[in-house]
Design goal:
The complex is a heterodimer of chains A (479) and B (503).
Chain A lengths: L1 H26 L5 H21 L4 E3 L4 E3 L1 H27 L5 H19 L3 H19 L6 H32 L4 H9 L5 H18 L7 H8 L2 H26 L4 H24 L4 H24 L3 H28 L15 H4 L1 H15 L5 H16 L2 H29 L13 H19 L2 H11 L2
Antiparallel strand pairs in A: 1-2
Chain B lengths: L5 H18 L5 H28 L5 E9 L4 E7 L1 H20 L8 H20 L3 H10 L1 H11 L4 H34 L8 H4 L6 H18 L8 H8 L2 H26 L1 H27 L4 H20 L4 H32 L15 H15 L5 H16 L1 H26 L5 H6 L8 H19 L2 H6 L1 H10 L7
Antiparallel strand pairs in B: 1-2
Helix pairs in contact in B: 1-2, 1-4, 2-3, 2-4, 3-4, 3-11, 3-14, 3-19, 4-5, 4-6, 5-7, 6-7, 7-9, 7-10, 9-11, 9-12, 10-11, 10-13, 11-12, 11-13, 11-14, 12-13, 12-17, 13-14, 13-16, 13-17, 14-15, 14-16, 14-19, 15-17, 16-17, 16-19
The chains are: A mainly alpha (479), B mainly alpha (503).
Chain lengths: 479, 503
């Protein structure tokens, strides 16, 4: 029992942090800084505990929770995501008289779910972790409760999210029934032994559909643009990164580990979904004049690139999972950075994120525009940024896998060229257009600046010196 | 070898300078201008020093530097220089300071950002020429895009945004497919040897790619990236737009160096890595080159814009480069490299001259000009000089390259040589016809209307043109200075270009 507590310590720290945040808000209400500070302290503690667990594996909860380098990597990534969001959000929220404490607590609960998800070795823990991660997302999407758009997005997100959870759960149950075990590796063994029948097709279809909803793959992506556009901008940043990374962990656990023996069945489906996801995401993003909505569609396209790694992993290339993990880290920094930039632009309630609002920003706020350029170039995949190396990594895995994965790699790079058009268009507005007459006031604040800077440093560092993260990723996968 | 990492110094001196300039106050533009000029001159001096060292070294690549960078995939920071890349490096550093000097007058807005972009561009270009690791090469290749995108997009003409986005998208499509080919090549090495060591290293990879599918597809992907950059017909349509919209220095560096990245890529990477694919697709490349030579010249004849005319003449001249490369014989390749260097000197001069004229007239419409020589004799004489060099007048450097390419083409296929020789007449037609309309005859009403604004070239402008003119004469009389400097590179290229099937 004692060792169980030690193994679960990061998870417990995060949950205790969430409760402490709520308590601190009750003691000193309406003080926005205090809950953020408490949350960051809890995150720091959890990070230290995770690093400590990063070198060896330990089990808890009767073997259904395995801590180790994989959890440490994803946990630290989650902590980075939540920390940047917590640094960026208060300026935006307080300008609109929304509280910060609830945000901090909700994010910490979601992070606890993500850690549980990453550590899960059986279907039940996996599903509990998933739900604990996504339910806070529904709450966050509706954070601006006086804004009808936010409420609409939240309701769509909630309805489709619970619907897909139900489909996924049904598929999980069928899989459990057919294989006779809830353990992920046990399922793989059972499937490899040939205990398969027609019911398996049902399970596979249901799990694929449910997972496709969670990662927002085309054609199950309809909730994303509305949920993303309606949410307060810093929260959109989190929603486009946190739950997406979590959903890909789900994919790794379900498809690459449990359903590995059925790879020949799900790979063709995944190839088609990935190609459709990146192409449609990019083509629709091309037509957007609102930067926030454009980034929402572009996040769909990035889902497609991440799926390339899953396909490669399914074909037996460990580099596929490594590529997904590296991509997830790169994507977290660059996309959070891009949304932090949009947050900084919306210093005043009601300020919009149209392309024309960005005109001439390079002259008025050169430093902010420079940071935005770094994020946009990274999202495009121009070296030497994180986004470039991430793309190269998943493409390398796909080329190794060969066959349909190689064709998918070619589709992915052609898509990157399409994406260049709309990302670079933002740079056109930043630097090549004259300033608009009534520009948005830019939000100030040291926390926001630190958040932006962390995202920028991450984006550049992962591109210039990717080796430490590659080694962490490779270590995370070595059992 | 000396212990000083001179190649890294050359590559990163402009970048460090750009960082230094970023710290200078925007309110002091002349300080920024001279700082940028100073940095580019230092880089030029360093590159000249490097050139002397290449001669002394007996190895294929001098001043080799190799550091582990991403060991998990065997990606290294590997630099090296030989006669070919050395000559192109010096061309780059030379044109960079000339461009910076030529931008003193024309660039008056956002001076600091301009010179930062230009110096970052210089770092990217030098990196492309000096990288011997495929991954590192690709990174520098892409790094070139961003500052050029900004230079055209911010300081360009009226349709600059269309032109700059077209430039980037064309280049990206080609280069991204090249990335897939690079990764596939590296993986094939890893699969064959069981180790990632050297998987991205050009020196290791040369002659090891045996998979016939990879030979063809890999070559096709590399060739597409380079063909877009050169640009070969039919991928040339971005070039006239980019040239017309770019500021003068942007056009100069585009024509002088960026187009050479494509030719260099063929010689250094595409053909040595994939000789079988290259031989298989060589007929297609030769046909496209001949089309580019003829088509570029024909389209140049009917141009009404001075800059566009020179842009199309570039398409024609660069056709000789690709034609020469794909003859796979010494004359052809010697000629191709000479043509790259000479085109860099001559066309850069022509773009500088068009820019100088534009500074006075704010117009490039050939029909509005006429009799310019009567007002500004020095300008007209300089223009005439570069123009004759471009036509290929014997004694000026343009002649030697085209002559050798045609000789090489004649050995390979007399038909091809015949068709291309005919174009040398066309070149004389479009250039001399343009010169006649712009500079001779009575002064046109438009030029007359400019009155005293129509001044002759200033000493600064002569300083930008004089080094180019001097080199055109020297290399015109003694092309062997150049051919001997890259003779070893050509020998190595010809050896690596032998099809593995034929071996």
């Amino acid at each position: 029992m004692n060792s169980d507590l030690l193994t679960l310590a990061p998870l417990i720290t995060v949950i205790a942090g969430a409760i402490a945040v709520l308590a601190s808000d009750m003691i000193t209400p309406n003080r926005n800084r205090a809950p953020i500070a408490v949350a960051l302290a809890a995150l720091g503690g959890a990070a230290a505990l995770l690093i400590n667990q990063g070198t060896s594996t330990a089990t808890a909860l009767g073997g259904s929770y395995v801590a180790g380098p994989f959890v440490a990597f994803l946990g630290l990534l989650g902590i980075s995501i939540v920390s940047i969001t917590l640094l960026v959000a208060p300026a935006y929220l307080s300008a609109r008289r929304y509280p910060s404490a609830e945000l901090a607590a909700t994010l910490l609960f979601a992070l606890a779910g993500a850690i549980l998800l990453a550590a899960a070795t059986d279907l039940i823990t996996l599903f509990v972790g998933l739900e604990l991660m996504v339910i806070p997302g529904y709450i966050l999407a509706g954070y601006a409760k006086r804004d009808p758009l936010s409420t609409e997005g939240a309701v769509k997100y909630f309805l489709l999210g619970s619907f897909s959870s139900a489909i996924l759960l049904f598929g999980i149950v069928v899989l459990w029934g057919l294989s006779g075990t809830a353990s992920l590796s046990g399922i793989a063994t059972a499937l490899a032994a040939g205990r398969a029948n027609a019911g398996l097709a049902v399970a596979l279809a249901l799990i694929t559909t449910g997972s496709a909803f969670k990662i927002a793959a085309v054609p199950f992506h309809y909730w994303t643009p509305d949920a993303y556009q309606g949410s307060p901008t810093p929260i959109t940043g989190y929603l486009s990164v946190g739950p997406k990374v979590g959903a890909f962990v789900l994919l790794i656990k379900l498809f690459v580990i449990a359903l590995a023996p059925l790879a020949s069945l799900w790979i063709p489906v995944m190839v088609v979904l990935a190609a459709a996801t990146m192409t449609l995401g990019n083509l629709v993003a091309l037509t957007q004049s609102n930067v926030k909505r454009m980034l929402a569609y572009s996040s769909i396209a990035h889902t497609g690139y991440l799926m390339v790694g899953i396909v490669a992993a399914g074909a037996g290339q460990a580099a596929g999972i490594a590529g997904v993990l590296f991509y997830a880290a790169a994507y977290a920094f660059m996309n959070l950075g891009a949304f932090a930039f949009l947050t900084a632009l919306q210093g005043r309630p009601g300020s919009t994120t149209q392309l024309s609002d960005l005109a001439g920003l390079g002259r008025q706020h050169p430093r902010l525009a420079l940071l935005a350029t770094i994020f946009l170039l990274s999202l495009t995949g121009i070296p030497p940024t994180a986004g470039f190396f991430a793309k190269a990594y998943v493409i390398l895995a796909a080329v190794q896998a060969g066959g349909p994965a190689t064709i998918l790699a070619v589709i992915a790079v052609l898509n990157a060229a399409i994406a260049a058009f709309y990302y670079l268009r933002v740079i056109v507005y930043l630097f090549m257009r004259d300033p608009a007459e009534s520009a948005n006031p830019v939000a100030e604040g040291p926390l926001l600046r630190i958040g932006l800077l962390i995202a920028a440093v991450g984006t550049v560092a992962l591109g210039l010196v990717p080796t430490p993260v590659i080694e962490a990723v490779v270590q995370a996968l070595a059992r | 070898m000396s212990d000083m990492p001179i190649l890294s110094l050359i590559i990163f001196a402009p970048l460090l300078g750009a960082l230094g300039i970023a710290l200078l106050p925007s309110s002091r533009p002349s300080l920024i201008r001279f700082a940028a000029l100073g940095i580019s001159l230092i880089t030029f001096a360093l590159s000249l020093g490097m050139l002397l060292g290449i001669r002394a070294s007996g190895e294929e690549f001098a001043f080799s530097e190799q550091l582990a960078w991403i060991p998990s995939f065997g990606i290294t920071y590997h630099l090296g220089v030989d006669g070919l890349s050395g000559a192109l490096v010096v061309l780059t550093t030379l044109l960079s300071w000339i461009c910076i000097l030529a931008s003193f007058g024309p660039i008056q807005t956002r001076v600091k950002e301009y010179f930062i972009s230009f110096l970052v561009l210089e770092t990217g270009m030098l990196g492309v020429f000096l990288a011997l690791d495929l991954f590192l090469f690709y990174i520098f290749w892409e790094v070139v895009l961003v500052p050029m995108y900004l230079i055209i997009g911010i300081w360009g003409g009226a349709d600059r945004i269309y032109a700059t986005i077209k430039f980037v998208l064309y280049t990206l499509v080609g280069s991204l497919l090249m990335l897939v080919a690079i990764l596939a090549t590296a993986f094939s090495h890893q699969a064959a040897t069981g180790s990632w060591a050297g998987a991205f290293d050009l020196i290791v990879l040369r002659g090891t790619v045996v998979d016939p599918t990879l030979q063809i597809l890999g070559f096709a992907a590399f060739a597409l990236a380079f063909a877009i950059k050169v640009p070969m017909f039919p991928f040339h349509t971005w070039l006239p737009d980019a040239h017309v919209q770019a500021p003068t220095a942007g056009s100069v560096i585009l024509a002088g160096v960026l187009l050479k990245l494509g030719g260099y890529g063929f010689i250094r990477f595409a053909i040595p890595l994939f000789p079988d694919g290259a031989h298989l697709l060589a007929p297609l490349m030769i046909v496209l080159s001949v089309i580019a030579i003829i088509y570029g010249a024909l389209v140049a004849i009917v141009q009404t814009d001075l800059k566009k005319l020179i842009a199309y003449s570039s398409v024609s001249h660069m056709g000789f480069v690709t034609l020469g490369i794909f003859t796979f014989n010494q004359q052809g390749v010697d000629g191709a490299i000479l043509q790259m260097l000479n085109h860099g000197l001559i066309t850069s001069g022509l773009f500088l001259l068009v820019g100088i004229g534009y500074e006075r007239t704010h117009d490039r419409e050939i029909a509005k000009m006429g009799g310019w020589a009567s007002r500004t004799p020095v300008y007209a004489a300089l223009f005439g000089f570069f123009l004759f060099a471009s036509v290929g007048l014997p004694g000026l450097s343009g002649f030697a390259g085209e002559f050798l390419v045609l000789l090489g083409a004649f050995i390979a296929n007399p038909m091809v040589a015949g068709a291309s020789t005919f174009v040398m007449i066309l070149a004389a037609v479009y250039l001399l016809y343009m010169y006649q309309r712009v500079f001779t005859g009575p002064l046109s009403p438009f030029l007359k209307g400019l009155g005293s604004h129509l001044t002759d070239v200033t000493p600064t402008e002569i300083m930008t043109l004089a080094p180019l003119a001097a080199m055109i004469v020297v290399f015109g009389v003694m092309p062997s200075i150049l051919t001997s400097s890259f003779a070893q590179s050509v020998q190595m290229f010809l050896m690596s270009a032998i099809s593995t099937v034929a071996r």
